[in-house]
Amino acid sequence: MDTVAMHISNGIVGPGTSGVFAAIALAALAVCVLRGRRDLDDRLAPMAGLVAAFIFAVQMLNFWVLPGVSGHLLGGALAAMLVGPWIGALCVSIVLIVQALVFADGGVSAIGLNITNMAVIGTFLTYGVLTLLLKVLPRKPGAIAATAFVAAIVSVVGGASGFVLEYALGGEVGDISLGKAAGLMIGVHVLIGIGEGLITAATVLAVAKVRPDLVYALRGRALAPVAQESAA
Amino acid sequence: MSRPKVKLFAFIAGGLLVAAVLAGVVSNFAYSAPDGLDSVSREGCTFDENDEITGGECMAKTAREHEVGGPLADYAIKGIDNPVIATGLSGLIGVAITFAIGGGAFWLVRHRRPKDA
């Protein structure tokens, strides 16, 4: 195999659009740092580092989606469920920056596009979905798994739609049928989202079993505190 | 306060071990076909066996050489020909770098709460 590119490469979307999204990404990350610091204590800080490292690792594991098409975890849903949307977006961004600067994966000029799609859209859509679902579902393992699964699909399709929008605004090749590209992009990413959903649900359940206090989604504001029954 | 069954240090160490096995070993069993974005970008073009575009119109047509490249480009290691070792080792390095940068940055900006009780 010649190149291993998982993210938007250099030269796909024009410099103007890339620059606008770099500014959007930077502003979003600045808000995440300011807002996320409130959550970031001695326990969440190492957990967030682990979440970033884990997402890096699992992104390498391309799975079968269709003949000749693979998919891999993007990680936004996993990050949002484990460490919350603010710190989660920063975790995914760190992965994307390391990949762009060290592994030549994703153009440096496209970093704002990739961060917007996978880190910002991915985590915040997830957070919206999981806040809604956890409000109506009982706080049981099956419900947490179902929430993770649905949130992951939504986050992946959301990220893919972000790319379609960016390409519509600044795609460098003129003759691309945007409708067809959008259909393909979203169709393939529904399938990838199923894989992402399974991985996200399994991982969140595993963490919830061992250390429920390390699952941010379980102590979100809309929820009563859980796992206190182990207190003598 | 409830006392967790697994200490935080042990949890983080265990999680890193899992990440290391995934990136260092399991990564070699990944499906090597282009991912969703890549395959949609290639739609409409034809490719030769070196993966160079030979014709057609597709998004990937304007893709340029990566700006940085570097010794770990494409999850390999320059100078290591064995693909299994190159992929595994670059994955391990990636996990280490990501945890060092992520964990370090989060540790530095964390807020310090006075210890309760």
From TrEMBL, chain A:
Q: Which UniProt keywords apply?
A: Cell membrane, Membrane, Transmembrane, Transmembrane helix, Transport
The answer on whether this UniProt entry bears the keyword Metal-binding reads: no
Q: How does it sit in the membrane?
A: Multi-pass membrane protein
Which Pfam families is this protein grouped with? Answer: CbiM
Compartment list: Cell membrane
Would you name any one GO CC term?
A: plasma membrane
Coiled-coil intervals: none
Q: What is its main location?
A: membrane
Q: Which residues cross the membrane?
A: 12-34, 46-66, 78-103, 115-137, 143-169, 181-208
Q: Which GO terms describe its biological process?
A: transition metal ion transport
Q: What is this protein called?
A: Cobalamin biosynthesis protein CbiM
From TrEMBL, chain B:
| Compartment(s) of residence | Cell membrane
Would the keyword Membrane be found if you checked this record's keyword annotation?
yes
Q: Per the record, what is one GO cellular component?
A: plasma membrane
User: PDGLE domain: which residues?
Assistant: 11-110
Could you list this entry's UniProt keywords, alphabetically sorted: Cell membrane, Membrane, Transmembrane, Transmembrane helix
Transmembrane residue ranges: 84-109
Q: From the UniProt annotation, give the residues forming the signal peptide.
A: none
Query: What InterPro entries does the record tag this protein with?
Result: PDGLE_dom
> What name appears for this protein in its UniProt entry?
Membrane protein
